[in-house]
Specification:
Elements (H helix, E strand, L loop, with lengths): L3 H8 L1 E5 L4 H13 L4 E5 L5 H12 L4 E5 L4 H10 L3 E4 L4 H9 L3 E6 L2 H10 L3 E4 L6 H9 L7 E3 L8 H6 L5 E3 L6 H6 L2 H12 L10
Parallel strand pairs: 1-2, 1-8, 2-3, 3-4, 4-5, 5-6, 6-7
InterPro entries: Aldlse_KDPG_KHG, Aldolase_TIM
Family: Belongs to the KHG/KDPG aldolase family.
Protein name: Bifunctional 4-hydroxy-2-oxoglutarate aldolase/2-dehydro-3-deoxy-phosphogluconate aldolase
C-alpha cells in the first residue's frame, strides 16, 4: 500500500475548492485536473460536498488525491469517508473532532498556527498540521516552525501563489493548500473555468508565464 504521506508529498498541491454549488465544484475540479493539479479538497462550505466527492471519486479514481475540507463535525468526517474521500482537513484542532476524523482511517490534517497549537495537534494524533492562515507569517514563519518541529509534516494554506510556491517547499512544507489564489470565488461565480485551468497550469508548473513554479 502506498504511504499516504508520501502520496501527499508527491501530489504537492491541494486545491481548496469552495464553490457555490455542486455543479460548479465539479466543473472547477475538471478544470484543475486538466491544468495538472490533482489534489482536490472539496470543502463543506460547498453545497452537497459528499455528493461532489462521490462523483469525483467515480470519475477519476486513483488518478487524483481527493478529500474533504472545512470538516467541523464527526458526521461530516464519516459522510466524506463514505463518499470516497482519502483525506480530511479541518481549519482548527479539537481533540474530539480529531478522534472522529482518525476513526475513519483516512489521512487527517488539522489546523494550527502557533507553536502551542502545533504541539496540541500532534498530541491529538493528527497526521499533518495545516498551518493556517499561513499568509500571516509567510515562508519565513514556516521555516521557523521547522526548528522545534523537524519531524512534523506541515502544510501551509493561505497565501500560496505560483510566484512563491517554491519558497514554501524550500521552507519545509510537505505540501501546500491553495485556495483563492488558485480557485477564486470570482472565477467560479463568473464560470471562468478556463481561468481556473490556466492558474492550475501555473501552480503545477505546466504554464509558461513568468513566476510559474518549476
Amino acid at each position: 500500500m502506498t504511504d499516504p504521506l508520501a502520496l501527499l508529498a508527491r501530489t504537492r498541491i491541494l486545491a481548496v475548492v469552495r464553490a457555490p454549488s455542486a455543479a460548479v465544484a465539479l466543473q472547477a475540479a475538471d478544470a484543475l485536473v486538466a491544468g495538472g493539479v490533482t489534489g482536490l479538497e472539496i470543502t463543506y462550505s460547498t453545497p452537497d460536498a459528499p455528493a461532489v466527492i462521490r462523483e469525483l471519486a467515480a470519475r477519476y479514481g486513483a488518478s487524483i488525491y481527493l478529500g474533504a475540507g472545512t470538516v467541523t463535525t464527526a458526521i461530516e468526517a464519516t459522510d466524506a469517508a463514505e463518499a470516497g474521500a482519502r483525506f480530511l482537513v479541518s481549519p482548527g484542532t479539537r481533540p474530539e473532532l480529531t478522534a472522529a476524523m482518525k476513526a475513519t482511517g483516512l489521512v487527517v490534517m488539522t489546523g494550527a498556527l502557533t507553536p502551542s497549537e502545533v504541539m496540541a495537534a500532534v498530541d491529538y494524533g493528527t497526521d499533518v498540521v495545516k498551518i493556517f492562515p499561513a499568509s500571516l507569517g509567510g515562508p519565513g514563519f514556516l521555516k521557523a516552525l521547522r526548528g522545534p518541529f523537524p519531524h512534523v509534516p506541515l502544510m501551509p494554506t493561505g497565501g500560496v501563489t505560483p510566484s512563491n510556491i517554491d519558497e514554501w517547499f524550500a521552507a519545509g512544507a510537505i505540501a501546500v493548500g491553495a485556495g483563492g489564489d488558485l480557485v477564486s470565488a470570482a472565477d467560479l461565480a463568473a464560470g471562468r473555468f478556463d481561468e481556473v485551468e490556466r492558474k492550475a497550469r501555473l501552480f503545477s508548473g505546466l504554464g509558461s508565464e513568468t513566476g510559474a513554479a518549476a
